Amino acid sequence: MNFIEWIVVGLIAGWLAGVVMKGGGYGIVVDIVLGIIGGFLGGWLFGVIGFWPGGGMIGSIIVAFVGAVILVGITRLIKRA
After folding, report:
1. Cβ contacts of residue 50 below 8 Å, gap of 6+?
2. Is 47 in contact with 21 (CB distance < 8 Å)?
3. CA torsion angle for 62, 64, 74, 37 (degrees, to 10)?
4. What is the pTM of this model?
5. What band does 56 get if pLDDT is binned at 50, 70 and 90?
6. CB 72 within 8 A of CB 34
7. How many Å from the N-terminal Cα to the C-terminal Cα in the chain?
8. Rounded distance, CA 30 to CA 1, Å?
9. What's the Rg (C-alpha) of the chain?
10. Is residue 78 classed exposed, middle or buried when 0-12, 13-18 and 19+ CB atoms within 10 A define those classes?
11. Alpha-carbon dihedral 65, 69, 74, 80, rounded to 10 degrees
12. Cα distance between residue 74 and residue 57, in whole Å
């Protein structure tokens, strides 16, 4: 993936994670960052369990979304503490 695709996947995954997790968003920049980092986390998790949802942009968005949801949950737990 090139840099623009990473940004698009990160934006979509971060936005979806914010919508699914409900509550106040973090803004577009943090959503992108959470989505990109979530992509790494999701890729690692999916690799550990030996499952990949398929290739292409949709598969990347699914993986990044799962990772971003986990990251949003962790950041909200830390924010509360």
Report:
1. none
2. no
3. 180
4. 0.82
5. confident
6. yes
7. 37
8. 20
9. 12
10. exposed
11. 140
12. 25
Let me know: does 32 contact 58? Beta carbons within 8 Å.
no
Output the average pLDDT for the chain.
Answer: 82
Count other C-beta atoms under 10 Å from residue 7's C-beta. 14
Q: Is 73 left (phi over 0), alpha (psi -120 to 50) or beta?
A: alpha
- The structure tokens listed for 56 are 């292409």
> By percentage, how much of the chain surpasses pLDDT 90?
1
**Residue 51 burial (CB count, 10 A):** 9
Q: Indicate the residue type of 5.
A: E
The CA distance from 8 to 74, in Å, is 23
| ∠ Cα 44 63 61 (to 5°) | 145
* Residue owning tokens 């949709």: 58
